Amino acid sequence: DQQRIDLNKREIDYAFKQHPYAVVIFVLGHQGGRPKQEDIVAFNAINDAYSFSQKSLAVIVNNLPRRRKLGYDDKMKNEVSHLLKTHLPHFECVSEIETDQEKQAVRQKLIHIVRDALPKQHDRRHAIYLEADKISGLSKQVEESQKRIEQDRAAHEALVRWLQKEFEEKERRRREEQKQRELQWRREQERIHAAEQAELRRQQAEYERRERQRREQAEYEERERRRRQAEYEETQRRRRQAEYEEAQRRQRELENQLAQKRRREIEAKKGMC
To answer: Taking the complete model, does pTM exceed 0.70, yes or no?
Structure first.
């Protein structure tokens, strides 16, 4: 149904326009316990248009039987990883849900997956190329790929392990680089802090030096003021002492003059007698 396909493409384009920076959750159906070929074809077409990132992509295989063979989920992950041609660090097999409690558990699991993934900017490189008349051929190619997976699972698992190892190595290098950047940042912050502390100590020492100079200058000026005050008071004391002595001298001269005058008057009176 080309109309249905076109509607889905428009809805996908609209969703990415509304939220280009996002984590993508792609849900696959299954047929007989194998990924639905049509969903694989659809994923490859959308991925070609929007270039998904391993870190921002979560793939869910939905409505699987509740009872599955041991190792089934790992086998499914390997097969889906091969068909989608990408490593899947965020992958989950979801069983058929029968109760609200199971629904809540699945919801929490999906929330955890989204939190672990890293959002990415998804810009459309070109239109989604998916035509109804070509889906059958593309699905046939997916079916052939599934057959090859079964025929060469050992090689496929080795490839997945290599992809896993490569992804983990990239993650290790990223964490190491992040650790080095954080260490450099901390060292830079410590250097800046040490420089700021040194500048504060220098400013404090300069302030204390100026305060000491100010106090010494104030003490010197106070000593000079007191010295000048003492000299002034001594000068005033000496001046007053000199004035007092001069007054005493004049007083004595006046008394001598009066005494001489009285003697002359007495002698004059005696001469008249």
So the answer is: no
Are 91 and 59 in contact, with CB atoms under 8 Å apart?
Answer: yes
Structure tokens at 162: 């290599």
Cα(181)–Cα(224) distance, integer angstroms: 63
**Nearest residue to 116 via CA among 171, 165, 72, 179:** 171
Q: Is 66 helix (H, G, I), strand (E, B) or coil?
A: coil
The predicted-structure confidence for 103-149, as pLDDT tens digits, reads as follows 999 999 999 999 999 999 999 999 888 765 555 555 666 566 666 66
Per the document, the length of the chain is 273
**Exposure letters 216-250 (e unless 16+ CB within 10 A, then b):** eeeeeeeeeeeeeeeeeeeeeeeeeeeeeeeeeee
Give every CB contact of residue 133 below 8 A, 6+ residues apart in sequence.
2
Q: What is the CA radius of gyration of the chain?
A: 53
**Dist. CA 40–CA 81, nearest whole Å:** 10
Contact 69, 38 (CB under 8 A): no
Count the Cβ atoms, other than its own, within 10 Å of residue 12: 18
Q: 3-state class of 23 per DSSP?
A: coil
Parts of the chain with a pLDDT under 70: 1, 131-154, 156-157, 273
